[in-house]
Specification:
It is a single chain. By secondary structure, the protein is α+β, with helices and mostly antiparallel strands. Helix content is about 30%, strand content about 20%. It is built from 22 helices and 30 strands. Strands 2, 4, 8, 17, 19, 20, 22 and 23 form an eight-stranded mixed beta sheet that branches. The longest helix has 19 residues, at about 700-720.
Length: about 775
Amino acid sequence: MAEDLAGAGAAAAAPDPDGPDGVRMTWNNWPRSKLEASKCVVPVAASIAPIRASPSLLVLPYNPLRCKPPCSAVLNPFARVDFAAKIWICPFCFSRNHFPPHYAAISEAVVPGELYPQCTTVEYAPPPLDHYSAPSSPPPLPPVFLFVIDTCLIEEEMGFVKSAMRRAIGMLPEHALVGLVTFGTQVHLYELGFADVSKIYVFRGTKEISKDQILDHLGFSASSVRHGAAVGAPGYPKVTQANGFHPSGSVNRFLLPAADCEYALSSLLDELQTDQWPVEAGNRALRCTGVALNVASGLLGACMPGTGARIVALVGGPCTQGPGMIVSKDFSESVRSHKDLDKDAVPHFHKAVQFYDNLAKQLVNQGHVLDLFASAVDQVGLAEMKVAVERTGGLVVLAESFGHSVFKDSFKRIFEDGEQSLGLSFNGTLEINCSKDIKIQGVIGPCTSLEKKGALCADTIVGQGNTTSWKMCGLDRTTCLTVFFEISPSERPNQSGIPNPQLYIQFLTNYQSPEGQMRLRVTTVTRRWVDGSCSEELVEGFDQETAAVVFARYVSLKMEMEQEFNATRWLDRSLIRLCSRFGDYRKDDPASFTLNPNFSILPQFMFNLRRSQFVINNSPDETAYFRTLLNRESISNSVVMIQPSLLSYSFNSPPSPALLDVASISADCILLLDAYFSVVIFHGMTIAQWRNMGYQNQPEHQAFAQLLQAPQDDAQMIIKNRFPVPRLVICDQHGSQARFLLAKLNPSATYNSAHEVAPGSDVIFTNDVSLQIFCEHLQRLAVQS
């Protein structure tokens, strides 16, 4: 069985199956009852990419037609239409809705775009009111970038930061608004609109400051004008709004269009120094990350509430003072590890998480995003900050240095446009409508519940639940969410008394596009109900890649939420139950066990998931980083995180998929491993020796030069299309960095079986079981009566 699985895995490189809708489900045929769904073991869930780029997407230049409240579903191809009576029947609530007068011309031959059978996903982009009816209609909103830079760095790292910032400022759209905050022992907020001299507001880094205090300090609240700030003085506006905040004129003090402040920012970066506060021997630098982010959030809340804005934080070490502190300044106290978290020996952790949880609520309320670029050899506190990054839909990149390509190239990507653009969008909300027999348990991914309770909310909550509407302050073309459903059949089937064979789900995503326009993406999908006793139909609709990713996301959530949760045991039990339910076998006869092809690769996925970075812990920061990316990436990318892909290059054959097994190592071939977070080019022993002798530079060995170059070109293609940019590792057999490949391979040959290894191959020094032994145990346990 293991050989069949491994072979299937190697051949499983198929084109992107997400389709134009960007929706993939664990089960494409759904069991009708809650009991039957529980017997299926794999949760009924859907992975959705709300604003996925699609060349076939139909954009409609008018407002959508909605069903009567409380349903409010949008007209879609699954609605039944009576063209004579000009009526459409909603597939969700069966309400009859009249078409408005401007749809009077519709007929079977003339239908609007949203009723085309192939257009299950459409985007509404109504034009702004015309010039005559609204001469003062607002222009599209500019994107806002507030940079928050750590200055507790060594000179070399500060040089890398300045270089990256200069490049970023040069790439920003001219109309984008830009602001600057730096922090070390204190927080410095720069007033870019004060061109005569450098004007800075300084905040103490040792204690938490409320939003009102920040606004008062900056002269934004009415009281600050009454108590000493001279109205009409340079930099202060002359009028105050009724709500106590100054109007948009005051924005220009701190946030200026990139075209207007490029010179001022360049000058500030030239003058920017590392934190000058003395650091005693045996102590860490005093760093007030929490206060800096608090100030940034308060500023944006006053200047740009409800407008798409990003706080882009560049952090080079742990927060050691003030709110959000994760470790004391004394080096004798080490940064918390997973063991410390398990034993609850973490004096700062819970307080810091609570601080960032409150910051997340404030940012979500304002509609703003927190992006985190952390570059340090030690941990910086990403485990605590994860809640603020994930709930606001922010981007996160973890690197070892600001000079490393992982940081430099990833940071550059967020400002690129054209084909390389990430399509960064703002202020998204997701609403879900479903057929009556379906309830929503919750969502795992970069979003926050808007707590819009209703009849569609399930009692069981998974992730962000108890709602049918979610806020996504930041989202892009690759953002992906996992929605968990519960089957909850109603007492009566429907008005006709005949069960409807189809179920319907509609995803409505409102968002501010990168150009500043408000758009509505509507995706409506249908699937089939089947009788749970009919296993064949359930099996036909099973998507094992989606199931593996949903298991990974669900188990990661349980590891975070439940104390002493044993992930490996839970995964093993789930897989045994699944194989018992859907395998073909005679009781107590392991040799008779077979799995349908639709399930055949799942045991291999689970074997690799048990050994992956999501289950076997690294540092708390790395674990938080890996899980954040797992929860927001597409199914195809997430599968690569769980089970890397391996390509083999040799003289004897063109590049071909290889088994993710130590047996694939050969002295005369090159392997290319894509593990998502890293890309490894591994040279066999003979290839490395020939390369070291310089054969590739000799004209008669052009074929060898081409063989060396081919994996390099393929690796660059992978790196070019991925965010965050993966780490590129080039290594040789028996070299120290070969561990990046060996850690991911199936240990079919270990030090215990070294006598059976083919010449030129390799062994792995581990006590882990191999895939073959894992599958033998699985077969034995699945067939037990």
